[in-house]
Amino acid sequence: MGLPGPTEVVSHMTATRIDEEHVEFILDPCHEEVTDMSAGEGFVVPAGGGKHFNSLTPGRSFAMKLLGHETHESIMMFEETLPAGTASLHHLHNDSDEVAWVLEGEFTFKIGDEVTVGGPGTCAFMPRDIPHAWKNTGTETGRVLFLYTPAAAGGFIEELAENQPTDEAEREARLERHRWKVVGPNPL
User: Are 117 and 135 in contact (CB under 8 A)?
Assistant: First the structure.
């Protein structure tokens, strides 16, 4: 892909070429279109870039960094801001492995039967078909970078970015479509 052309929108930012070696990026909140991104050519999502949306849980938000269709379904990645006490479903993915990298805060992870607590720099690998759950067990809001590979299970989060399910039947259909299985309440 290379550097942007003379002026084009790059994921909520306007990129203006200053000269052959320099490009100026200006945050452009009026645009949500993303430049054609191709995993074959590679691309960069600048700091603050990606699609942002809030959860129905106050203080919880998502910053979508890499979407499945942008990476030829290789990976899907997002950063999530999570108030203290926020917990995931106790679930598994049939088709994707999940990675969580703690950026801020303290999180407890249950992967299979193992429970581990970790702060910034902690990396959790949750293999497909293994029940897992996590919870912000710290006293402050935390941030975690989540990655699914292949991107299939991340499609559930991508759909949430577009709209929230209107009822339990729609939520269940989405979970099934992206091959998530809820195995019970969060045990943490």
Answer: no
CATH tag for 50-183 (out of 2.170.270.10, 3.40.1500.10, 2.60.120.10, 2.130.10.10): 2.60.120.10
Residue 178 vs residues 1, 142, 152: alpha-carbon distances, Å: 30, 26, 6
- Residue 150's nearest CA partner among 98, 92, 78, 88 is 98
Tokens of 49: 């870039």
Domain boundaries in the chain?
Answer: 1-39, 50-183
CB atoms within 10 A of CB 171: 15
Using CA of residue 112, residue 116, residue 118, residue 122, what is the dihedral sign?
negative
Give ∠ CA 156-159-163 in degrees, rounded to 5: 135
Q: Please give the Cα distance from 108 to 100 (Å, whole number).
A: 11
Tens-of-pLDDT digits for all 188 residues of the chain? 444 444 333 444 444 444 455 444 444 444 344 445 556 788 999 999 999 988 888 999 999 999 999 999 999 999 999 999 999 999 999 999 999 999 999 999 999 999 999 999 999 999 999 999 999 999 999 999 999 999 999 998 888 888 887 888 988 888 889 889 999 999 99
